[in-house]
Amino acid sequence: MTPAAPLDAADELAGFAAAFSKPPGVYLDGNSLGLLCHAAEASLREAVEAWRTLAIRGWTEGAEPWFGMARAAAVRLAPLLGCEPADVMVGNSTTVNLHQILATFRGPERPFVVIDGTHFPTDRYAVESNLRLTGGTPDEHLIVVPPEPDRLLDEERLVLEVAEHPCLAVLPSVVYTTGQLLDMKLVTGAVGGTLVAWDCSHSAGVVPHRFRDDGIDLAFGCGYKYLNGGPGAAAWLYVHPRLRDRLPGLAGWFGSAPARQFEMAAAFHPAADAGRFGIGTPHVFSLAPLLGALRVLGDAGIDRIRAKSVAQTRFLLDYGRERLGRFGVGVVTPDDPARRGGHVTFTHPDAAKLSRALRARGVVPDFRPPDMLRFAPAPLYTSFAECQAAVDTLETILSDNAHHELADADDLVT
Questions:
Q1: What is the full per-residue pLDDT of the chain (414 aa) written as tens digits?
Q2: Sign of torsion, CA 390 395 396 398?
Q3: How many whole angstroms separate alpha carbon 389 and alpha carbon 54?
Q4: Domain spans, the chain
Q5: Residues taking part in catalysis
Q6: Distance from C-alpha of 235 to C-alpha of 108, rounded to nearest angstrom
Q7: Any residues with CB less than 8 A from the CB of 360 and at least 6 apart, and which?
Q8: CATH number attached to the domain at 5-30+302-405
């Protein structure tokens, strides 16, 4: 019996794999793009059919009228975030929603922005853009907290930096490189009075959140990773009720109170809920698949998803060290499950070539510079046997030095 076999035999979520269209081989890139589930495809087809048969009436008629689609998505997303539907706006892109947070909640009372040195580049670009637009400069007003020598973030250091400055902090729930899961409740509570905006792109859908209970100020994230909403899926934005009386820094027609939207008034009448932070017309064909995918996640239950994710990343850590350590493969993902997100990051000087060699053999991980190889099992469609097969394939490549046969590539996302 293989090491993975008893784990798969006991897997309560094994049946959900049949709800997804899986490409051949082993797919371990769900933290970059989740796979298509049949419910998402059906929801998209339904929206297209409404366009074909109803045309403009699709906004108010049909099985899922487009006008209310964003709020319908918020209803399904809220349980995964541990909040109420009124706390969530579904729409725009992740970066646009961060710009909305910066434009709304950063001002003279919070002239500085604190980010971590591992942050996903687009978030830093947005922060620096906001500073320039508002008369600040990144050199003067951006505070970057570097990771420790082991590449992990020191939460105490983050708290000290945030507490020492009148700022808005933009931090990751899960560090996209190492897979480190930060204690959002601890950090938010420790900096009392300073707002923290959490980028939850790498946690929503695989890590349970308790935004209301944990007193989270602000959060945002995408819909195409563990939420399986498809490429370009609508993103989301969470605002705690105590902050919701703020007028949006970036106002638009779809931030209006729904009952007054078609008055076409010159004055802006914002929605009472987090919908006020919406801007333009919802992208219906980016929302529809997310609606279907969220139904599947709801059926599975976020706590069961997290339990399997912890078990799968534990398996990858243990089996990976056992089989790959002799080849100089390291691990930068925390062992403690309370500090571990949904993916495991192995390190090797030839990680870029190893990623390409794996893909050539039907295993799809991803590479992040300079030496990181990320394995991201998605609990709803990845088996333990597939996790084992990925490690076994990597072991074979290293044993045969097969990756050395590959030419250098300009494409870093391999």
A1: 799 999 999 999 999 999 999 999 999 999 999 999 999 999 999 999 999 999 999 999 999 999 999 999 999 999 999 999 999 999 999 999 999 999 999 999 999 999 999 989 999 999 999 999 999 999 999 999 999 999 999 999 999 999 888 999 999 999 999 999 999 999 999 987 789 999 999 999 999 999 999 999 999 999 999 999 999 999 999 999 999 999 999 999 999 999 998 888 999 999 999 999 999 999 999 999 999 999 999 999 999 999 999 999 999 999 999 999 999 999 999 999 999 999 999 999 999 999 999 999 999 999 999 999 999 999 999 999 999 999 999 999 999 988 988 876 654 454
A2: positive
A3: 48
A4: 5-30+302-405, 42-300
A5: 120, 199, 224-225, 374
A6: 28
A7: none
A8: 3.90.1150.10
Q: What is the CATH number of domain 42-300?
A: 3.40.640.10
CA distance 186 to 155: 9
How far, in Å, CA of 128 to CA of 126, rounded?
A: 6
Radius of gyration (Cα) for the chain, nearest Å?
A: 22
Cα–Cα distances (Å) from 89 to 267, 279, 320, 351, 387, in that order, read 21, 10, 40, 38, 35
